[in-house]
Amino acid sequence: MMLKGVSETELNNTFPDAKKVAKEKLGIGAVLMGGGVYYTDTGYMEKKPYEVQIVGQCPNLSENNECLVYDSRPSVCRNFVVGSPSCTKSRISLSLSPVPLDLVKEAQKINQAEELIEVMNGLKKGDRVCNE
Description:
The chain is of the alpha+beta class. 36% of the residues lie in helices and 14% in strands. It folds into 2 domains: 1-63, no CATH class; 81-122.
């Protein structure tokens, strides 16, 4: 799985054992090096300059495939859509079945609720919620 736009803080907090490689080593090169987490500095995004490639299972997943860093996961993981083509491809690469449609719909509801909570938490007293 390739994660683009990862900040240095997210990289250090989420993947402390990641190995830095040259950009040309990501992709098939990282696969050939074996399982693990590899990253490179893209040099073109100021605040989130890293690309991270996870070869094999993410080191932050439990034996039950639950995220161990869910509350502090990087934004690229937060934005990873359950049931999307990228999700399905990643699951198949790990010998997991695609996410059933009813669970995808439930995850979408949860994601929308989380986004609403984030917006509401960012409001200050007196902020207008609607333009009426």
